[in-house]
Amino acid sequence: MAPPLSLLSALSSQTDACAVLVRVTRVWESINKRSNQLMYTNIILVDEEDNHMLATEFEDMPNYVANVKCLIEVVGMVIGYGQLETRSNGARKIDVVLTNARNEKIVVALWESKASQFHELLIAEKDVPLIVVITGLMVKKFSDKVLLSSSDATRIYANIDYTPVKDLRNAIAAATGNAAENLPKPTYNRFVTAEEPTLQDLTIKEILETTLPNSAAVLRRTCEATIVAILQGEGWYYNCCPRCSRKVQAVEGDYYCNNCAKEANDFKPRYKVIVRVEDTSARTTFTLFNKEAEQLIGVPVETLLTQFSEAPGMTVIPPIINNIIGKMCAFDIKINSYNTERGYEEYTVYRLSECPETTKEAPDSHAPGKSTKRQKTG
């Protein structure tokens, strides 16, 4: 005789034999990213006590950081998205900004097939507001900011006939004073962020002429420019202290960090590539550090050091780095007293986004203007 039906909540590791009546709500495979081999198949079961999808509130996301055992669902309206890009490890990625009825925002990073699926969704739904349900997300923290990241279990549902979607659409409409059908459509953003306001976009000439309100101020600005050369005199990498990220010095066979005032023999190599850039107004130099340089070059610095271990020195630029010449990018840069008071260029790049081919225009017929600031040659 079959055992009586049990609810899932009644099961435990001590349960011997039982029968359950459940519905399979989700099935996905976990794949080893390196070997592309199937590790296991995941199945989510729901019984009569839990037959609904539970969305996590934006404000509760920090409680789930690093909780790999709990995947969450989110419902939100898409207000912004970035470029579908390919990272240095070959992975496809797109960043998406969602908002809720309280105008809270959160970034969702979609990877691989989920990134491609969402990109296709944007094309198909380009003329309408987009309210999505995204399931199977992990909560992560990057640079002290909480964001969501897709997993093998992630599924994306857009503008579906689902009560939470209808409720959110009506709530946002009421909060903004818009009709539900006139809510804003998603917009493309060079740099996807949930917190920062839109940065002022300047030409290079305007950047060179920028002054600071005081010597301690630091301004963030963006500009579009084309990389036209790489300065060779400063090399293309440095040995970095793992604690403060400053350059370490070789002292009698050991490595020492002056900033930390201690030995740093556990240093790590990091990119530091100084590029000359120009637009139709002027030219200047930007400094690309590790993450931004690797984003353009497509290869980690450790890989290049292994391949070029017998090169004459760090001042010899590997050919693969020279391949970034000609790329047009949107740069998010820092302007500080080093640039405005001491008269140096080499503006530090916080973030960059390579411009799609369709946005690149032919150079203007007149040559860029010259700068009075100091530029290193190479």
From TrEMBL:
Belongs to the replication factor A protein 1 family. Keywords: DNA-binding, Metal-binding, Zinc, Zinc-finger. GO terms for molecular function: DNA binding; zinc ion binding. It comes from Heracleum sosnowskyi. It comes from the Eukaryota. This is Replication factor A C-terminal domain-containing protein. Residues 222-352 form the Replication factor A C-terminal domain. Residues 356-378 are annotated as: Disordered. InterPro entries: Euk_RPA1_DBD_C, NA-bd_OB-fold, Rep_factor-A_C. CDD domains: RPA1_DBD_B_like, RPA1_DBD_C. SUPFAM superfamilies: Nucleic acid-binding proteins.
